[in-house]
Structures are given as C-alpha cells and as structure tokens.
C-alpha cells in the first residue's frame, strides 16, 4: 500500500527531528489507522505520544518553546507541542489524560510495536491501546474508528510487537 505524500513527508520530518532530539516518539491516532489501511480514514495531523522530557527535547530540536500544560475539556497534557514545518502538523502529547465519566484518566499505552512507513521504522501503540483510547475519549467521531478496528480484528496482528 502506498502512503500519501503529505503523510510520508510528515513521517520523514518527524524521523529527522526525533533523531536530532534523541527521542523515540510513539505514533497513535488516525494516522496509524491510515498507515495500516484500517477503514478509509485520512489523518489531518500526526499524533504522537512521548514523555515530558522527550517533549522538551523535541521542542529544543525544533527551536520552539513547549506549550507547557495544555488541553481542553476532553484532553490534558503535561507538555504539548504543535510541530510545524511538514505538510501535516505533528501533535505531540506528553502524559495525556482523558476526561471520562469517572474523572480524568491518564492514557498510557500498554503495548507498542513497530510499523514500517516511508522507508523508516516507527514505534506505534498497539491496536488494542488505540481502541482503548477511542473508547475512553468517547467522541462521536471515534465510533467509526472503533468499528473499523473491530472489523480489522483489533489486537496487535497488523504489525510487529
């Protein structure tokens, strides 16, 4: 499966930036579904998870200041970055929490794997963890993503763990 050019260029940008920063970001979100061919989703941005120290390192490598704690009524992040310079914005979250009916829940991937894309290898959340994120977020737009993950068999079979 070919990767659309905007996503491929954004992944290469992230790879170079992460290399300069000495960090290993973890892909998640709609871009992961697009890369794996699950559903017919097209990512509007590239979502990645890192810890707070790695977010600061990415910000320094990009020559920007981290946004610090940020969020809205659905999501909070200990450090948040909007990295520009690639076709898609790279949305970096560190220590992300999701508002649920039971209060704020820290979202931490339980398993990650590797995916090959744009001629590089990237770390990514497991499909189980991605589904858990969408269920916790509970947004209307996530229902179709949950259904697509379930139709694809969920789990971790789509890439190496």
What features would you highlight for this structure?
single chain, 161 residues, alpha+beta, Beta Polymerase, domain 2, 5 helices, globular
Q: Which structural class best describes the helix and strand composition? A: alpha+beta
- Largest β-sheet summary: 8 strands, mixed
Quote the distance from N terminus to C terminus.
20 Å
Number of strands: 8
The name of the CATH architecture is: 2-Layer Sandwich
Order of helices and strands: HEHEHEEEEEEHH
CATH topology: Beta Polymerase, domain 2
Tally of contiguous helical segments: 5
Oligomer: single chain
* Rounded mean pLDDT score: 89
Strand-residue proportion: 25-35%
What is the percent of helical residues? 25-40%
What's the number of domains? 1
Looking at the structure, what is the overall shape?
Answer: globular
pLDDT < 50 runs, ≥5 residues: none
**Using only CA atoms, what is the Rg?**
15 Å
Top-tier CATH class? Alpha Beta
Give the topology, please:
Blueprint: H1 5-21, E1 26-28, H2 30-36, E2 45-50, H3 52-62, E3 70-71, E4 75-83, E5 89-100, E6 103-106, E7 112-117, E8 120-125, H4 127-137, H5 142-151
Parallel strand pairs: 1-8, 2-5
Antiparallel strand pairs: 1-2, 3-4, 4-5, 5-6, 7-8
Helix pairs in contact: 1-3, 4-5
Notes on the protein architecture:
- The protein has one domain (5-151): Beta Polymerase, domain 2 (2-Layer Sandwich), CATH 3.30.460.
- By secondary structure, the protein is of the alpha+beta class.
- Strands 1, 2, 3, 4, 5, 6, 7 and 8 form an eight-stranded mixed beta sheet that branches.
- It is built from five helices and eight strands; from the N terminus they run αβαβαββββββαα.
- The protein has helices spanning 5-21, 30-36, 52-62, 127-137, 142-151; strands spanning 26-28, 45-50, 70-71, 75-83, 89-100, 103-106, 112-117, 120-125.
- It starts with a helix and ends in a 10-residue tail after the last helix.
- Helix content is 35%, strand content 30%.
